[in-house]
Specification:
2 copies of one chain form a homodimer. Chain A contains 11 helices and 13 strands. Chain A has helices at residues 44-62, 101-109, 118-129, 188-192, 194-206, 213-216, 226-234, 238-262, 278-291, 294-299, 311-330; strands at 9-14, 18-24, 30-37, 72-76, 79-81, 86-89, 97-99, 113-117, 138-143, 147-153, 156-158, 266-270, 301-304. The two termini of chain A are 23 Å apart.
Amino acid sequence: MIRSNQRPVLAVDLGGTKIIAAVVVPDGKVISRSYCLTLAEEGPKAVIERLLSAVSEALVGAELKNSEIAGVGMAAAGIIDAKKGVITTSPNLPGWHDVPLRDVIAERIGLATYLVNDASAAALGEHRFGAGKGLGNLIYLTVSTGIGGGIIIDGRLYTGTDGCAGEIGHMTIEAHGPQCNCGNFGCLEALASGSAMTREAVRRMGQGEPSSIAELARGRLMDVTAEMIAVVARQGDKMACEIVADAANYLGIGLANLVNIFNPEVIVIGGGVSSMGNMLLGPARKVVKERAFKLPLRTVRIIRARLGSNAEMMGAAVYVFDQQLAKRRKT
Amino acid sequence: MIRSNQRPVLAVDLGGTKIIAAVVVPDGKVISRSYCLTLAEEGPKAVIERLLSAVSEALVGAELKNSEIAGVGMAAAGIIDAKKGVITTSPNLPGWHDVPLRDVIAERIGLATYLVNDASAAALGEHRFGAGKGLGNLIYLTVSTGIGGGIIIDGRLYTGTDGCAGEIGHMTIEAHGPQCNCGNFGCLEALASGSAMTREAVRRMGQGEPSSIAELARGRLMDVTAEMIAVVARQGDKMACEIVADAANYLGIGLANLVNIFNPEVIVIGGGVSSMGNMLLGPARKVVKERAFKLPLRTVRIIRARLGSNAEMMGAAVYVFDQQLAKRRKT
């Protein structure tokens, strides 16, 4: 028999590209895992059905029934109203406006269900099982198509008054900079994300500037990705190197802001673009040294995430464990 | 007889201009208060003696002996290493580098002594006794010669790993902006503080641009203050109005960043420059509305501080009460 405080949870990462569902036990072991494509363009209803299928598959894989599960944790991109369990808007899930995902899933599965922003979840995952294990004050930054953030204060996730704190990617660092997807101008995301780099590459190639990115993309500007930019930057392509250097500079400015504001022990950087590694993080760390105060600089380590694409899902599991622990303590 | 958890504390605000010392009881009542000029240019040794005199005077005023005091709380401007009780560097106290103020005062007074950044202290003061009473998540911003910040998370002061968190004034919001006193570029402080406004006024008058600020300052550019700019802006002086509008715009950008990062219930704005009131805060609030996410915007109130120049001193008192309460709970 499984004791109630050792029961596994269902953890879901609802991303713009794919949905991961897994059964996870409190020590972090993943018993089973399934995934499917999100196909976000088909709208909330179809996506929710696919999410439920992935969840069922994970349950079958773990040879468990609903009643043996302690709860469901879901991580999703977007501005999440945690009190109401609603995705108010999401850059990766077009057409999702004020979707009460938590209650919809809770009703269908019949278990206590939680919804948390994906970068907040990843912060929790990295803090409990990844690069920031056991630390008190941790900032997590995911640099991929967009830039998201998660905040751990005194060992606990901080999600703010409504549950939408941590939008570090939408911190303006260049007041007169380019417009961001969020409508604001000069956000960190508009200057240092994967989409910022591709936007810049496309703009410059559109003006006739030569770059071997063009060959990789077979001349189709719409197909340029941050990965392509990374590949040719490694080969010394001038334009790609400049674009990565600019992004690294802005990333460093954003990180310096975090160092001055939070005085954290560690900043953990995950997300697809962070796999550029030292090509991006080396110059960014140098900028932090030039811009932040000496005292918090002496403390902070800026390191890469460890859980890869499992961070959000693992964090969603941790979120359920923590919520239920808090509930047990209250009663 | 006074019970140990009701004993008053000595609270000190060590500012660049003046030192306030007071005896404060846990319900926030100030029993006695004394102050003197800092005369910071005379260096740490002389200032510390004046601080001790102010403390003695406050004790005499309260008709209390050292032994009847629970502890000493000191708020000071600068980058403070809270673990070590050291002012590592301070913009308002020239020549203060790595001064172990906490231990020096503790030894001289013979009481448990605490040192905290002045804006963090003001955040605590406003949270306990001022504009943010009883709220969970509060950001305090002091806009005066410089810009400082304090962070209240879930009802508790957050000072970071070394005790120097909250340097919101040194968040870059214009990557290619003017250099700040801290060495960094485009900090909020370099764009929206009193010194940013006077720098701009002096620069423009130096280029021959007309403004009635010149009359107020009797032609001496060195004597221009933010107050003068406010006075003539109220009278419709074109240059002064533009300078205040620019500062308000940048202040709004900084506030929008705080809304997106912290999703706070309230942002409390204190400091001398904030007494410009709606001339500054009106346009700043408008910028926040344009730039921040809708969900946290719906929640946040951006309001003026209530404790005026007592906020730091009151917060230093709260800091002692809280530290000693935590200590009692541990034992």
